[in-house]
Specification:
Elements (H helix, E strand, L loop, with lengths): L4 H22 L33 E2 L24 E8 L10 E7 L6 H6 L8 E6 L5 E7 L4 E6 L7 E4 L8 E9 L4 E8 L10 E6 L5 H7 L10 E4 H6 L5 E2 L3 H6 L7 E3 L5 E7 L2 E8 L6 E7 L3 E3 L3 E2 L4 E8 L10 E6 L6 E9 L5 E7 L5 E6 L7 E5 L5 E4 L4 E9 L9 E6 L8 H6 L12 E4 L2 E7 L2 E8 L6 E7 L5 E7 L3 E9 L10 E7 L4 E8 L5 E7 L16 E6 L6 E5 L5 E6 L3 E8 L9 E7 L14 E4 L5 E7 L2 E9 L6 H7 L5 E10 L4 E7 L8 E10 L2 E2 L4 E5 L5 E4 L5 E3 L3 E2 L3 E11 L4 E13 L5 E8 L1 E9 L10 E5 L10 E2 L5 E7 L4 E6 L6 E5 L9 E5 L4 E8 L11 E8 L2 E8 L8 E9 L2 E9 L2 E2 L3 E5 L4 E7 L6
Parallel strand pairs: 2-8, 9-17, 9-18, 19-25, 26-32, 33-39, 40-46, 47-55, 56-62, 63-70
Antiparallel strand pairs: 1-8, 2-5, 3-4, 3-6, 6-7, 9-14, 10-13, 10-15, 11-12, 11-21, 15-16, 19-22, 20-21, 20-23, 23-24, 26-29, 27-30, 28-29, 30-31, 33-36, 34-35, 34-37, 37-38, 40-43, 41-42, 41-44, 44-45, 47-48, 47-51, 47-52, 49-50, 49-53, 53-54, 56-59, 57-58, 57-60, 60-61, 63-66, 64-65, 64-67, ...
């Protein structure tokens, strides 16, 4: 969970970053061995008060799941499943357990269905929502919410858009058909902060928005303060300067609906100033915070504040009037254009981008203006006539007037015909700005529900099968037709300026699928199941058809096109199409859809359940643990997203339960509970959870029950170990050296004392652990900062103390770099590489004699790597312990040559337009990568490539397309390089 960073980071948080944080913090690993047997019982943990009324794995059933769906009507969306979905209750309390009454609670849900939202909208299926329910706590602080899908991630947004806004991950497994008590949500007491917001003359500014967030660590702080993120609101966009200057694509990154609708729901404490400009937070976090203050038509301000217990009065925050950006929108003849939508803003301090605010629509004179812009750089404005057209931008120095020229509109006529040439009546025909490599939204856009709002169909049917729009701005577009009873047709078109466009789009009959969904045990049809035909699509996954089964379990899907759609930008191992079937009484199921199949049957299995108990010896653990259950033999590729890890927790007796699990092999990991805290504070603190156990090879059968007992004795931490030792360099102790231990559990880090000694705390010792020692040291020839002193992998015996004493020696390494004629190469970068990272000095540069000095510390083989402008990289392996090693090495650099030509991709038939492949050239001293864009393929499916900076010699060319690897091809580069190679690749798997 750690990103261009502003928009991508913002989107991740809005999409449930706090929920995905769980996975980012948990990490992954391999096998585990369960430690059983007697041992000293650890000190009893104090019972957590927030769990006094939490029933853990015992949920109260409130609706008996029936075997038949009552009624013949087929509903859509989650509403069709409401009686069978999961619910939850809980309390919101203060730290002293006082109930918090009248505070809002929202249920946030994140799952893989979000990837299909845009397609579902166009197919008539209500899209999944990020916030699926909101309520208000009663006088006892209690709340009740429903509509939860058990394989999704859930979070509880508390007081969103309010002064105590926060989010908590639901780390309790929710069960379909039941209401689960998730316990107390404890709000931090914090402190009280108050202050005023004034203008430059000292007058109060009412209605200003005031927000506070934890201060990010280290170098990120400057970015937050300078980027002006406090001025970003739901109606804002981001302008990309490069796109305007180079005219390479749309200069505006618009907020997708999913982000725009929920940007104010970010878990950021928020309040507004009163008529006197005053604000107050009663429960602000304690510590270093960033305070952001903004108001439309004013320049916002952000600052770092430090809070302590009690009340803190802050200095007045001053909002300034800022710049007024003014300009005009004209056509190609210079005539003003009225009614044009305009966005405007100033570049960030560090350039490249700007936060764009709505400047309204141009007046009759074509003019626009926007007040309250910061004087941080160039000013930018972008305009378009209609939402389904491209943005056109202008960039000028601050204070200069902007002029945006829009090309004159043209008329567009689309003739829609079927395969027999007959006109297609009554279709919905849309134009949308073309998105592809030039779009800065790229991959991010679709995942965030880009396009989930249907486009305005401005093309009107004037006669049978003829659709016309008289005014369209020229540019690249996607033309889409959605006819009744035929497959959707789509075509990329380029509308040229100055000439009317007349286009013909053929709508194929497509193919339909008669699908029957049955119970695998009884053979009875299953009503109300949602069935989707999905496949690779830009950038991840696309839905081609969706529907709900009727009372007999049948549904007709389609018609859908038989043409291969654009494959995903990254492939994710999904080459064909899949039938995805979902129903709350059964495990989510996906099966391949073979080409040409027009009728098939999918059998759904009842999900299995996992019941377990955590013990210390024969006694309850007296503490609560968080559990993560992950399937390890799923479908693979992108479809794994529909089989995500399940989160759960044990109760005070150690019991836990997971239900509705697809059959297969699972891995169960136990952690100290940590997601009951504010995830934002966890990110800032960079805390890692403590993993206490991992159970491999947990088998789940269809509809069956699996039981597991986990005994954490003797230490209460499973298999733990400790390392103690000392660090010496050149016979002197190294004080302050950092000793880091990492492995399958959370890492530990300690520093050596003044005598060079260290001792780690207990850490989880499952499999190998990796020890890395680094520090600031002084040798006879150099002073080294953060030098890597030692690294190794160890397999430790649990419940033991391992001794690691390092007695290291340093020695200088003289490096001479020459060209092919023996002449010294000055300014070459020389770097030492060793297993685990860099050793000695991170790098050095050669002097005019071509010489550089590095320092070798400890034993072990190293690589000396050299790079210099105009030369190919080279490296030499050295072994300081070898008898013939004299402390000197000479490395010859040869002039860089080029490897270029054509890649023949005809063997990769599934590669579609808009996708790409990756070519790697490997050989002596290094190599290079090249992305091959399918949009640039010639008609004979050959793509040009060019890799520079190589040295002459023998190489291998490797190719990956959509996760499929090609057979390697040998390439020989002569002294002058090779410019006209033809690489004909074939898949490894045929």
């Amino acid at each position: 969970m750690k990103s261009n960073h502003l928009l991508a980071g913002l989107a991740v948080v809005v999409l449930g970053g706090a929920l995905w944080l769980a996975l980012a913090l948990l990490g992954t690993g391999d096998s585990a061995v369960l430690v059983r047997g007697p041992g000293p019982e650890p000190a009893a943990a104090e019972a957590s008060p927030d769990l006094e009324h939490f029933s853990g794995s015992e949920s109260r059933a409130v609706a008996k799941v029936t075997e038949a769906v009552v009624g013949a009507a087929v509903e859509t969306g989650l509403a069709a499943w409401d009686p069978e979905l999961g619910g939850l209750i809980g309390r919101v309390v203060e730290e002293d357990r006082t109930p918090v009454a009248g505070i809002s609670v929202a249920l946030v849900q994140v799952d893989a269905n979000l990837m299909l939202a845009a397609d579902w909208v166009t197919l008539g299926e209500p899209p999944p929502q990020l916030v699926i329910g909101r309520t208000i706590t009663d006088e006892e602080g209690r709340f009740r919410l429903g509509g939860a899908y058990d394989s999704s991630f859930q979070g509880l947004g508390i007081d969103l858009r309010g002064p105590r806004s926060t989010i908590r991950v639901v780390d309790t497994q929710l069960h379909h058909g039941e209401v689960t008590d998730v316990g107390d949500i404890v709000l931090s007491a914090g402190c009280t902060i108050f202050g005023r917001v004034v203008d430059e003359g000292g007058a109060p500014v009412p209605g200003a928005r005031v927000r506070i967030v934890p201060s990010p660590p280290g170098e990120n702080l400057t970015m937050f303060l300078q980027a002006g993120v406090q001025d970003f609101r739901a109606d804002c966009s981001v302008g990309i300067s490069k796109m305007i200057v180079e005219e390479t694509g749309s200069p505006v990154v618009e907020l997708p609906p999913l982000v725009r609708d929920h940007i104010d729901d970010l878990p950021i404490p928020t309040t507004f100033t009163n008529a006197d400009g005053e604000y107050r937070f009663e429960s602000a976090p304690i510590g270093d915070l960033i305070q952001g203050i903004d108001k439309p038509a004013w320049v916002g301000v952000s600052r770092v504040i430090t809070t302590t217990a009690g009340e803190v009065e802050l200095a007045d925050a001053v909002l300034s009037a800022g710049l007024t950006i003014e300009g005009i929108v004209v056509d190609e003849q210079g005539d003003p254009l009225a009614g044009v939508e305009v966005l405007a803003g100033s570049e960030f301090v560090f350039g490249e981008a700007a936060i764009l605010h709505p400047a309204g629509r141009t007046g009759a004179d074509g003019r626009f203006s926007l007040r309250g812009c910061p004087a941080t750089g160039a000013v930018m404005a972008c305009a378009r006539r209609n939402p389904d057209e491209h943005w056109v931008g202008a960039l000028e120095a601050a204070g200069d007037e902007l002029e945006i020229e829009l090309e004159s509109t043209i008329a567009v006529t689309v003739h829609l015909i079927d395969a027999a040439g007959e006109p297609v009546r009554g279709a919905r025909v849309e134009l949308a700005p073309g998105v592809g490599r030039e779009s800065p939204m790229g991959v991010l856009g679709r995942f965030m529900n880009l396009g989930a709002e249907p486009r305005d169909a401005r093309l009107v049917e004037t006669e049978a099968g003829t659709y016309v729009c008289d005014e369209v701005t020229p540019g690249r577009y996607e033309l889409t037709a959605r006819p009744k009873g035929l497959a959707k047709a789509r075509q990329r078109v380029e509308l040229l300026p100055g000439q009317a466009a007349e286009l013909t789009l053929i709508c194929e009959a497509g193919q339909g699928l008669e699908l029957t969904v049955i119970d695998a045990r009884t053979g009875a049809g299953i009503a109300g199941a949602r069935a989707s035909i999905v496949g690779a699509g830009f950038p991840f996954l696309a839905a081609f058809a969706v529907g709900r089964t009727g009372p007999d379990g049948r549904v007709h899907l389609g018609p859908y096109s038989l043409r291969k759609e654009e494959n995903g930008a990254f492939g994710f191992g999904l080459a064909g199409r899949q039938i995805l079937v979902q129903h709350p009484r059964y495990a989510d199921t996906s099966v391949p859809l073979d080409a040409g199949v027009q009728a098939t049957q999918v059998a759904l299995v009842r999900g299995g359940s996992l019941h377990g108990r955590i013990l210390w010896g024969s006694d309850p653990p007296r503490s609560v643990y968080m559990l993560v259950l992950e399937n390890t033999d799923g479908p693979g590729g992108i479809m794994e997203a529909f089989l995500p890890p399940r989160l759960g927790r044990s109760d005070m007796s150690g019991a836990f339960r997971f239900t509705n699990l697809p059959p297969g092999t699972y891995e169960l990991t136990v952690f100290d509970r940590f997601l009951d805290q504010d995830p934002l504070m966890l990110l800032v603190a960079q805390e890692e959870p403590t993993m206490v156990h991992r159970e491999d090879d947990v088998q789940l059968e269809p509809g069956g029950r699996t039981d597991v007992v986990i005994d954490l004795s003797p230490s209460g931490r499973g298999q733990t170990a400790r390392i103690e030792g000392s660090v010496y360099l050149d016979y002197h102790p190294v004080a302050g050296a950092r000793v880091r231990v990492s492995g399958r559990g959370p890492g530990v880090s300690v520093k050596t004392d003044e005598r060079g000694n260290f001792e780690t705390p207990d850490f989880l010792a499952l499999g190998e652990v990796y020890v890395r020692v680094s520090g600031d040291v002084e040798t006879p020839t150099a002073v080294l900062k953060n030098a890597l002193l030692h690294s190794e992998a160890l397999t430790l015996v649990p419940q033991r103390v391992h001794r690691l004493d390092l007695d290291l020696q340093s020695q200088p390494l003289q490096v001479r770099v020459t060209g092919s004629g023996g002449a010294p190469v000055a300014g070459a970068r020389v770097q030492l590489h060793s297993e685990g990272g860099y050793g000695g000095q991170p790098s050095s540069k050669t002097d005019e004699r071509g010489r550089a000095e590095l320092t070798l510390i400890g034993e072990g083989q190293r690589d000396v790597r050299v790079s210099a402008e105009g030369y190919a990289d080279n490296s030499v392996a050295i072994d300081p312990t070898a008898a013939d090693f004299g402390g000197e090495v000479e490395i010859e650099l040869r002039g860089a040559v080029t490897c270029a030509g054509l890649c023949d991709l005809t063997a990769f038939e599934f590669l579609g337009s808009g996708n790409g492949a990756y070519l790697q050239i490997t050989g002596p001293g290094g190599g290079g990568w090249k992305r091959l864009d399918a949009d640039d393929l010639s008609d004979d499916r050959r793509a040009t490539f060019r890799v520079e900076g190589l040295q002459p010699g023998s190489y291998e060319a490797h190719l990956w397309v959509n996760g499929r690897q090609a057979k390697a091809i040998s390439v020989e580069l002569p002294e002058g390089g090779a410019e006209h190679l033809l690489l004909a690749f074939e898949p490894v798997d045929g």
